[in-house]
Amino acid sequence: MGPAKGKKGKGQGKSHGKKQKKPEVDILSPAAMLNLYYIAHNVADCLHLRGFHWPGAPKGKKGRSK
């Protein structure tokens, strides 16, 4: 007798019924402020990173180009 054949590649999938709600995050908490201190370079950058965009905001990614 050969090996038993079963379903291939079928695992337990994610349930699509309910969406998980994201927890509310306090952007003024000490941990968030410490993180912002290290990633933002000025006030405009700080506001942009926290989701407060304005019409003339630059849209590109910061970083080195190769």
What does this entry look like structurally?
- This protein is an all-alpha fold.
- The chain has a domain at 27-52.
- 26% of the residues lie in helices and 0% in strands.
- It has 2 helices and no strands.
- The protein has helices at 30-39, 43-49.
- It comes from Pan troglodytes.
Which key phrases capture this entry?
66 residues; elongated; mainly alpha; 0% strand
Bin the helical content: 25-40%
What class, by secondary structure content?
Answer: mainly alpha
Low-confidence stretches: none
Instruction: Tell me what portion of residues adopts beta-strand conformation.
Output: under 5%
Total E-strand runs? 0
How would you describe the shape?
A: elongated
Region (Disordered): 1-25
Protein name: Small lysine rich protein 1
Organism: Pan troglodytes
Biased composition (Basic residues): 1-21
What's the short story on this structure?
The protein has helices at 30-39, 43-49. The protein is an all-alpha fold and 66 residues long.
What's the SSE blueprint?
Layout (H helix, E strand, L loop, with lengths): L29 H10 L3 H7 L17
